Amino acid sequence: MIVIVMVFLGAGLFFLTVSTVGLIRLPDFLSRAHAVGKSETLGAMLVLIALAIYNGWALVSFKIFLIVFLVAVTNPTGVHAITRAAVRKRQAFWVREDDDQAHPTVPRAEEGS
Amino acid sequence: MTETILLGSAMYIAVLIAVNFYRVAVGPTIFDRLIAVGLVGNNAVLLIVLMGFLYGRMDMFLDLAITYAILNFVGVVALGKYLESAGSEGK
User: Fold this and answer.
1) In this structure, what are the phi and psi dihedrals at residue A108, rounded to the nearest 5 degrees?
2) Could you give the CA distance from residue A100 to residue B3 in angstroms, rounded to a whole number?
3) In chain B, domain spans
4) Model confidence over B12-40: pLDDT tens digits?
5) What residue ranges do the domains of chain A occupy?
6) Of A18, A69, B40, B69, which has the fewest CB atoms closer than 10 Å, so is most exposed?
7) Cβ–Cβ of A40/B42 closer than 8 Å?
8) Nearest-CA residue of chain A relative to B19?
9) CATH tag, B2-85
């Protein structure tokens, strides 16, 4: 039992780390939203499922699974709302320096903008 | 043993929250700041649940965590809808 809890907890902390590294390291807004929207949801769900398994059958585990359902529904919805606002505002995104033919009509992300 | 691992996980999530505040402070556009604030709120829910296990008062801390998750979602979606209709250019 404790081995299963440790596996879920370790995987959840790994995916939380992945989302934080993506938020810090990736070059523009859309790729950061890509990193946050999926791996943060998976990491939070894995950590909460590990705590529910550790607690055992009780009302507390039911509440934890309620939080799991809430996170699984609301976190991608929130990220999608912000990303849709950014796309509607025509946020410039990052392209490679030597790639002249990629999306020639879309404005490039300027340095420091 | 298990208490130590749960305490270590809580401290690690606290460190992740502190790292995320870099993007909140520096992030070039307001959308970067907003998405980083959503990530901080989501990590704070996990931190509240872990604190409940460490203090042994799960019933109170889990209600706090549910409330915090709902408030985080409502705040992020409201700010997203506002920025979609506002006149700023996302600076």
Assistant:
1) -80, 150
2) 55
3) 2-85
4) 999 999 999 998 998 788 888 999 999 99
5) 2-88
6) A69
7) yes
8) A20
9) 1.10.287
Q: Which of B2, B67, B71, B73 is nearest to A51 (CA)?
A: B2
d(C-alpha B11, C-alpha A83), whole Å: 30
**Mutation to test the B interface, candidates A74, A79, A110, most B Cβ within 10 Å:** A74
Pairwise CA distance, residues B13 & B19, whole Å: 10
Q: Does B57 touch chain A (CB under 8 A)?
A: no
Residue of B nearest to A64 (CA): B62
Q: Which residue of B has its CA nearest to A74?
A: B73
Task: Tell me the C-alpha distance between A14 and B13, whole Å.
Answer: 11
Neighbours of A84 (CB within 10 A): 14
Q: State how far residue B89 is from chain A, nearest Cα, in angstroms.
A: 6
